[in-house]
Amino acid sequence: MGILGFIPGVTTHYGSMEFAAHHSGAKPLNIFQVSVLHNIVHLLFGIAGLALARAIPTARNYLVVGGAVYLVLWLYGLIIDVGSNANFVPVNNADNWLHFFLGIGMIGAGFFLTRTTSGVGTTRSRTHSAAGVPGRLCGDAGRPAQHWAACVSVHRRPR
Predict the structure, then answer these.
(1) What digits encode the pLDDT tens for the residues 59-103?
(2) Nearest one of 115, 159, 158, 145 to 134, comparing CA atoms
(3) For the chain, what is the domain count?
(4) Are residues 13 and 76 in the same domain?
């Protein structure tokens, strides 16, 4: 759970934290079973998210791919025996559901928050005359009034 997993007091049984083992007893908020490896993985996910948030395409890819990774971790947690050596991360039932909701939320955000509302253009490629009338990007003539209204609303500068 990243930084929280390294804070004594927030993480119960902090002294029993292992590097990577299923018998690590450390639990942030006394809910999620963590290890040093588990915390490092969440920290790296956060750092990658901050680094890739600088542009919409990389942010979208981070959300979708990262969400898919969290869903794979969710499935992994459901399949393995939590008392076996295969549970080296470690995960418990709370971790599994956290990974599920993170995965669904990230994929949903990647698809729905970055989609465009119109195929006419984007706010980065505006072409307007001084009067605010769409130029070449929206076509020059012979278009119905609904087209012009949609084009202007897509290319309107934020106030």
Answers:
(1) 999 999 999 999 999 999 999 887 788 877 778 888 899 899 999
(2) 145
(3) 2
(4) yes
Q: Supply the DSSP string of 32-46, one letter for each residue.
A: S---HHHHHHHHHHH
| DSSP-derived secondary structure for 10-70 | TEETGGG--SS-TT---EETTTS---HHHHHHHHHHHHHHHHHTTSHHHHHHHHHHHHHHH
Contact (CB, 8 A) for 112 and 126: no
Whether residues 104 and 129 fall in one domain: no
pTM, to two decimals: 0.63
- Report the residue count for the chain: 159
CA distance 138 to 79: 53
**106/126 same-domain check:** no
pLDDT, one tens digit per residue, over 1-19 is: 567 766 777 777 666 777 7
105 and 146 housed in the same domain: no
Domain that holds residue 125: 118-159
